Amino acid sequence: MFGRSSKKRELEERIEELKRRIETLESEREALKRELAKERERGRKAKSELQEVEVLLKNAEKRVLTLENELKRLKEKQSEHASFKDVVTLRDTTSLELLSKIGSVRSKRRDLLTIYLGSGERVADLERSGEMPVLGEDLEHLLSRIESDTGIVVFHDVGRIFMNTLVAVPPFPLDTSGWRVDTTFDTDPLERLILKDRTICILLSHAGETFIGVSNRDGFLEDTIVRSSVKEKHTKGGWSQKRFSRLREEDIRNHISKVAETLAEIIERWRDSTEIIIAGGEYNLIRDVLEAYHDLPQLVRGIDARIGKDKGTIDEIRAKVWSLRWYVLG
C-alpha cells in the first residue's frame, strides 16, 4: 500500500512540475509575442519613415537637378550675351605698330597674361594650364567662338584695370604654343612670325577668273590671272535650264583645267622656296587641283579682294593675305 502511495505522489509532483513548466513556457511565449509585435510595429514605422525619407530624398534630388539646369541655362544665356567689342583686320605693318604698343605696357605686378594657342588647341591643352590665372567663363566662351586655322594669340590683363583683352589671328600657322604671366606681354613670337622672310603661293579663285601669284612680304615675285568664258546665269527663253547647267559646268571644267596647267608651271619654278599655298575665293573650284600638291602645306583663307591687272589691286591681294584679324574683348 505504501509503495503505491509513494508512486502516486511522485506522479502528482511530476504533473505539477510539468504544469509549472508549461505555465512558464506559456508566459515566455506571450512575452515573446508581445516583443515580436512591438518589433513588427517598430519595423512598420521604420519602413514607413524610410519610405518618407526616400520620397523626400527623391524630391530633393529633382530640385537640385532643376536648379543645376536653371543655373546652366542662365550661364549659357549670359555667355550668349557676351560679345566682341570690336573686330578689325589690320595689315602687317599696322599690326606690328599695335604689337609695339602692347609690348610697351608695363605692370608692377605679374598680371599680364599672354597665351599662344595653335590651331585646334584649347587652353586646357597647354602645359601647366592649371596654374594659369582664371580667364572666366565669358572670356573662354568668346575665345571658343574664334575660328582660326592658324591659331590665336591672347593678350589679357588679369587685373582688368588698364586694357581690354586683345586676340590676334595670325596670317600663318603659329610655330609655338604656351602661356606666360609677367609684368609685360610676350609679343616676340608673333612679331617674328609676321617679319619672317617667307615665300608663299596665293590662289584667289572664281568661276572664269583666278589669280595665281608667288609672293614674299615685300611684293609679288610672279603673278598671273587665268581667265575663261563661263556663263553667268540662265535667262528666260533660249536654252533649257538643264542644258544651261551642263554647258556652264563644262565651262568651269575648262577653266579649272587652265588653272591647273598654269599653277603647275608656276609651282615648278618656285617649289623649292614655296613655304605654303594659301587659297581663297571659291575653294571648291580648285580643291581637286590642289590635291596634286599635298606635299606642300595648304591654308584656306577668306581673302576679301577683287581680281584686277593694275598694280594696286594686285598689291591689295598680297596685303590681305599678310593681314591679321584682331578681336577686342570686353
UniProtKB/TrEMBL annotation:
Keyword Metal-binding attached: no
Coiled-coil regions listed in the entry: 1-77
InterPro entries to which the protein is assigned, alphabetical: eFR1_2_sf, Peptide_chain-rel_eRF1/aRF1, VLRF1
Record keywords, A-Z: Coiled coil
Chain segments annotated as transmembrane: none
GO MF annotation terms: translation release factor activity
Domain of life: Archaea
Actinobacteria/chloroflexi VLRF1 release factor domain sequence ranges: 199-324
Name assigned to this protein: ERF1 domain protein 2 domain protein
Organism of provenance: Candidatus Syntropharchaeum butanivorans
